[in-house]
Write a structure and sequence with these properties.
single chain, about 290 residues, alpha+beta, five-stranded antiparallel β-sheet, 9 helices, disordered N terminus, disordered C terminus
Protein backbone atom coordinates (compact mmCIF):
# COMPACT_ATOMS: atom_id res chain seq x y z
CA UNK A 1 0.00 0.00 0.00
CA UNK A 2 1.46 3.34 -1.08
CA UNK A 3 1.02 6.63 0.75
CA UNK A 4 -0.26 9.07 -1.82
CA UNK A 5 -0.04 12.84 -1.91
CA UNK A 6 -2.87 15.30 -1.38
CA UNK A 7 -3.51 17.56 -4.35
CA UNK A 8 -3.94 20.67 -2.17
CA UNK A 9 -2.45 21.95 1.10
CA UNK A 10 -4.30 21.00 4.27
CA UNK A 11 -5.65 23.24 7.00
CA UNK A 12 -3.44 26.32 7.48
CA UNK A 13 -2.00 26.92 10.92
CA UNK A 14 -2.21 30.41 12.39
CA UNK A 15 1.11 32.13 12.93
CA UNK A 16 0.50 31.98 16.67
CA UNK A 17 -1.88 30.12 18.99
CA UNK A 18 -2.77 32.95 21.36
CA UNK A 19 -3.11 36.58 20.26
CA UNK A 20 0.34 38.14 20.09
CA UNK A 21 1.13 41.65 18.84
CA UNK A 22 3.14 41.59 15.65
CA UNK A 23 4.30 45.15 16.27
CA UNK A 24 5.44 46.98 19.38
CA UNK A 25 6.36 45.55 22.75
CA UNK A 26 5.32 42.04 23.79
CA UNK A 27 3.09 41.95 26.91
CA UNK A 28 5.44 39.48 28.62
CA UNK A 29 8.99 38.25 28.10
CA UNK A 30 7.53 34.80 27.22
CA UNK A 31 4.03 34.27 25.79
CA UNK A 32 3.01 30.62 25.38
CA UNK A 33 0.02 28.63 24.17
CA UNK A 34 -1.05 25.48 22.33
CA UNK A 35 -3.68 23.94 20.05
CA UNK A 36 -4.55 20.46 18.72
CA UNK A 37 -5.16 20.50 14.96
CA UNK A 38 -7.64 17.89 13.71
CA UNK A 39 -5.76 17.24 10.48
CA UNK A 40 -2.19 17.51 9.18
CA UNK A 41 -1.60 21.25 9.28
CA UNK A 42 0.68 23.40 7.16
CA UNK A 43 1.72 27.01 7.46
CA UNK A 44 3.07 29.22 4.72
CA UNK A 45 6.47 30.90 4.97
CA UNK A 46 6.36 33.75 7.47
CA UNK A 47 8.45 35.37 10.18
CA UNK A 48 7.89 36.96 13.59
CA UNK A 49 9.39 39.99 15.34
CA UNK A 50 9.85 37.66 18.33
CA UNK A 51 11.94 34.55 18.90
CA UNK A 52 9.76 31.43 18.73
CA UNK A 53 10.06 27.99 20.29
CA UNK A 54 7.72 25.35 18.86
CA UNK A 55 7.26 21.74 19.87
CA UNK A 56 4.68 18.97 19.58
CA UNK A 57 3.42 16.14 21.72
CA UNK A 58 2.13 12.99 20.03
CA UNK A 59 3.46 13.80 16.57
CA UNK A 60 6.17 15.53 14.58
CA UNK A 61 6.89 19.01 13.35
CA UNK A 62 8.70 19.65 10.07
CA UNK A 63 10.01 23.06 9.06
CA UNK A 64 11.84 24.25 5.97
CA UNK A 65 14.11 27.21 6.63
CA UNK A 66 16.11 28.41 3.65
CA UNK A 67 18.24 25.48 2.51
CA UNK A 68 17.61 23.27 5.55
CA UNK A 69 14.77 20.99 6.62
CA UNK A 70 14.24 20.34 10.33
CA UNK A 71 12.20 17.40 11.61
CA UNK A 72 11.37 17.65 15.30
CA UNK A 73 9.88 14.70 17.17
CA UNK A 74 8.56 14.41 20.70
CA UNK A 75 11.09 15.43 23.32
CA UNK A 76 12.55 18.17 21.10
CA UNK A 77 11.56 21.64 20.02
CA UNK A 78 12.69 24.07 17.34
CA UNK A 79 14.03 27.53 18.23
CA UNK A 80 13.34 30.06 15.49
CA UNK A 81 15.11 33.43 15.85
CA UNK A 82 13.16 36.62 15.29
CA UNK A 83 12.92 37.65 11.66
CA UNK A 84 13.82 34.25 10.17
CA UNK A 85 11.33 33.16 7.49
CA UNK A 86 10.07 29.60 7.92
CA UNK A 87 7.25 27.34 6.82
CA UNK A 88 6.34 23.77 7.63
CA UNK A 89 3.88 21.20 8.86
CA UNK A 90 2.67 19.41 11.97
CA UNK A 91 0.96 16.02 12.05
CA UNK A 92 -2.73 15.47 12.78
CA UNK A 93 -3.85 15.23 16.38
CA UNK A 94 -0.54 16.39 17.80
CA UNK A 95 -0.52 19.00 20.54
CA UNK A 96 1.13 21.99 18.88
CA UNK A 97 2.85 24.25 21.41
CA UNK A 98 4.62 27.52 20.84
CA UNK A 99 6.23 30.16 22.98
CA UNK A 100 7.27 33.64 21.86
CA UNK A 101 10.24 35.41 23.46
CA UNK A 102 10.71 39.19 23.40
CA UNK A 103 14.18 39.64 21.83
CA UNK A 104 15.13 42.66 23.96
CA UNK A 105 14.44 40.65 27.11
CA UNK A 106 15.97 37.32 26.07
CA UNK A 107 19.37 37.00 27.83
CA UNK A 108 21.13 35.06 25.08
CA UNK A 109 21.55 35.22 21.33
CA UNK A 110 20.86 32.29 19.00
CA UNK A 111 21.28 33.53 15.47
CA UNK A 112 20.03 30.47 13.61
CA UNK A 113 17.33 27.82 14.01
CA UNK A 114 18.27 25.14 16.53
CA UNK A 115 16.69 21.99 17.91
CA UNK A 116 16.07 22.37 21.64
CA UNK A 117 15.86 19.63 24.26
CA UNK A 118 12.31 19.80 25.64
CA UNK A 119 12.99 18.44 29.11
CA UNK A 120 9.99 17.81 31.40
CA UNK A 121 11.02 20.83 33.47
CA UNK A 122 11.23 23.19 30.49
CA UNK A 123 7.94 21.97 29.08
CA UNK A 124 6.19 22.29 32.44
CA UNK A 125 7.49 25.84 32.90
CA UNK A 126 6.27 26.94 29.46
CA UNK A 127 2.87 25.36 30.02
CA UNK A 128 2.77 27.15 33.38
CA UNK A 129 3.52 30.43 31.62
CA UNK A 130 0.59 29.88 29.23
CA UNK A 131 -1.73 30.55 32.17
CA UNK A 132 -3.47 33.91 32.38
CA UNK A 133 -3.65 34.14 36.17
CA UNK A 134 0.05 34.54 37.01
CA UNK A 135 1.05 37.69 38.84
CA UNK A 136 4.09 39.63 37.70
CA UNK A 137 6.44 38.19 40.33
CA UNK A 138 5.44 34.57 39.67
CA UNK A 139 5.84 35.05 35.93
CA UNK A 140 9.27 36.62 36.36
CA UNK A 141 10.45 33.70 38.51
CA UNK A 142 9.25 31.12 35.98
CA UNK A 143 10.77 33.01 33.05
CA UNK A 144 14.11 33.17 34.85
CA UNK A 145 14.17 29.38 35.28
CA UNK A 146 13.22 28.88 31.60
CA UNK A 147 16.34 30.78 30.57
CA UNK A 148 18.41 28.67 32.97
CA UNK A 149 17.25 25.31 31.55
CA UNK A 150 16.71 26.09 27.83
CA UNK A 151 19.53 24.34 25.97
CA UNK A 152 20.19 23.18 22.38
CA UNK A 153 19.59 19.48 21.78
CA UNK A 154 22.57 17.17 21.33
CA UNK A 155 20.89 15.95 18.12
CA UNK A 156 20.41 18.69 15.54
CA UNK A 157 18.36 16.64 13.09
CA UNK A 158 18.46 18.80 9.98
CA UNK A 159 18.69 17.97 6.29
CA UNK A 160 20.96 20.27 4.29
CA UNK A 161 19.54 21.02 0.85
CA UNK A 162 22.10 21.39 -1.97
CA UNK A 163 21.28 24.91 -3.18
CA UNK A 164 23.23 24.01 -6.32
CA UNK A 165 21.39 24.50 -9.64
CA UNK A 166 23.11 21.43 -11.13
CA UNK A 167 21.49 19.04 -8.64
CA UNK A 168 18.59 21.03 -7.15
CA UNK A 169 16.14 19.21 -9.49
CA UNK A 170 17.17 15.93 -7.84
CA UNK A 171 16.63 17.30 -4.33
CA UNK A 172 13.25 18.84 -5.15
CA UNK A 173 12.02 15.65 -6.85
CA UNK A 174 13.05 13.58 -3.83
CA UNK A 175 11.47 16.05 -1.40
CA UNK A 176 8.25 15.54 -3.34
CA UNK A 177 8.67 11.76 -3.46
CA UNK A 178 11.41 10.29 -1.23
CA UNK A 179 10.64 6.86 -2.70
CA UNK A 180 11.71 7.90 -6.21
CA UNK A 181 13.86 4.90 -7.26
CA UNK A 182 16.04 6.62 -9.85
CA UNK A 183 19.73 5.97 -9.35
CA UNK A 184 22.51 8.51 -9.43
CA UNK A 185 23.40 7.34 -12.94
CA UNK A 186 19.80 7.76 -14.13
CA UNK A 187 19.67 11.26 -12.68
CA UNK A 188 22.94 12.17 -14.39
CA UNK A 189 21.55 11.08 -17.76
CA UNK A 190 18.30 12.98 -17.16
CA UNK A 191 20.16 16.18 -16.26
CA UNK A 192 22.78 15.82 -19.00
CA UNK A 193 25.74 15.84 -16.62
CA UNK A 194 28.26 13.20 -15.59
CA UNK A 195 27.95 10.79 -12.66
CA UNK A 196 31.09 12.32 -11.22
CA UNK A 197 29.59 15.81 -11.34
CA UNK A 198 26.51 14.68 -9.40
CA UNK A 199 28.66 12.89 -6.83
CA UNK A 200 31.00 15.82 -6.36
CA UNK A 201 28.16 18.37 -6.19
CA UNK A 202 26.33 16.45 -3.42
CA UNK A 203 29.55 16.13 -1.41
CA UNK A 204 30.42 19.79 -1.77
CA UNK A 205 26.93 21.10 -1.04
CA UNK A 206 25.75 18.76 1.73
CA UNK A 207 28.80 16.88 3.01
CA UNK A 208 27.07 13.62 2.09
CA UNK A 209 27.05 11.27 -0.88
CA UNK A 210 23.89 11.08 -2.97
CA UNK A 211 22.96 7.75 -1.31
CA UNK A 212 23.57 9.10 2.21
CA UNK A 213 21.58 12.26 1.51
CA UNK A 214 18.61 10.31 0.14
CA UNK A 215 18.75 7.95 3.12
CA UNK A 216 18.67 10.88 5.53
CA UNK A 217 15.73 12.43 3.68
CA UNK A 218 13.85 9.14 3.85
CA UNK A 219 14.37 8.95 7.61
CA UNK A 220 12.98 12.48 7.97
CA UNK A 221 9.90 11.37 6.05
CA UNK A 222 9.69 8.12 8.04
CA UNK A 223 9.49 10.04 11.32
CA UNK A 224 6.38 11.85 10.09
CA UNK A 225 4.73 8.68 8.79
CA UNK A 226 5.52 6.77 11.97
CA UNK A 227 3.99 9.50 14.10
CA UNK A 228 0.86 9.38 11.93
CA UNK A 229 0.41 5.68 12.66
CA UNK A 230 1.61 3.98 9.49
CA UNK A 231 3.18 0.56 9.88
CA UNK A 232 6.76 -0.26 8.99
CA UNK A 233 5.84 -2.30 5.91
CA UNK A 234 3.77 0.52 4.41
CA UNK A 235 6.47 3.06 5.16
CA UNK A 236 9.26 0.92 3.70
CA UNK A 237 7.28 0.46 0.46
CA UNK A 238 6.43 4.17 0.30
CA UNK A 239 10.06 5.16 0.74
CA UNK A 240 11.32 2.83 -1.98
CA UNK A 241 12.82 -0.01 0.06
CA UNK A 242 12.49 -3.51 -1.42
CA UNK A 243 12.26 -5.04 2.08
CA UNK A 244 11.14 -3.67 5.42
CA UNK A 245 14.36 -5.04 6.94
CA UNK A 246 16.34 -2.69 4.66
CA UNK A 247 14.31 0.27 5.88
CA UNK A 248 14.77 -0.74 9.54
CA UNK A 249 18.53 -1.04 9.02
CA UNK A 250 18.72 2.38 7.34
CA UNK A 251 16.64 3.95 10.11
CA UNK A 252 18.90 2.44 12.75
CA UNK A 253 22.03 3.76 11.00
CA UNK A 254 20.69 7.31 11.14
CA UNK A 255 18.74 7.34 14.43
CA UNK A 256 20.65 4.73 16.44
CA UNK A 257 17.52 2.70 17.14
CA UNK A 258 14.72 0.88 15.29
CA UNK A 259 11.48 2.56 14.19
CA UNK A 260 9.52 0.46 16.67
CA UNK A 261 11.70 1.57 19.56
CA UNK A 262 11.62 5.21 18.46
CA UNK A 263 7.83 5.49 18.40
CA UNK A 264 5.50 3.56 20.66
CA UNK A 265 2.74 1.75 18.79
CA UNK A 266 -0.38 3.86 18.50
CA UNK A 267 -3.90 3.63 17.15
CA UNK A 268 -2.93 5.01 13.73
CA UNK A 269 -3.58 8.27 11.98
CA UNK A 270 -6.96 9.99 12.06
CA UNK A 271 -7.29 9.77 8.31
CA UNK A 272 -6.66 7.28 5.55
CA UNK A 273 -3.22 6.90 3.98
CA UNK A 274 -4.29 9.19 1.19
CA UNK A 275 -4.48 12.02 3.73
CA UNK A 276 -0.70 12.09 4.10
CA UNK A 277 1.51 14.23 1.92
CA UNK A 278 5.16 15.19 1.96
CA UNK A 279 5.71 17.68 4.79
CA UNK A 280 8.31 19.80 3.05
CA UNK A 281 7.61 19.57 -0.66
CA UNK A 282 6.83 23.00 -2.03
CA UNK A 283 7.38 24.85 1.24
CA UNK A 284 9.87 27.55 0.34
CA UNK A 285 11.67 30.18 2.32
CA UNK A 286 10.02 33.59 1.91
Amino acid sequence: MQVSALPEPVEPLPQQVDPLPEQGAAPFTITAGFRIPRVPTEWAPHSHPFHELVWVRGGTLTSRVGDRVFTVSEGHGLWMPAGVAHGGRSTAGAQFHDAFFAPDRTPFAVGEPKAVAMTPLLESLLIHLSGTDLDEAARARAESVVFDVLRPSERQFALQLPNDPRIDPIAEALLDDPGDPRSLEEWAVRLGISDRTVTRAFRQATGLSFAQWRQLLRVHRALTLLSEGFDVLTISETLGYARSSSFIAAFRRVMGTTPGAFFAAGDGADGAPGDVRNPVSGVQNA
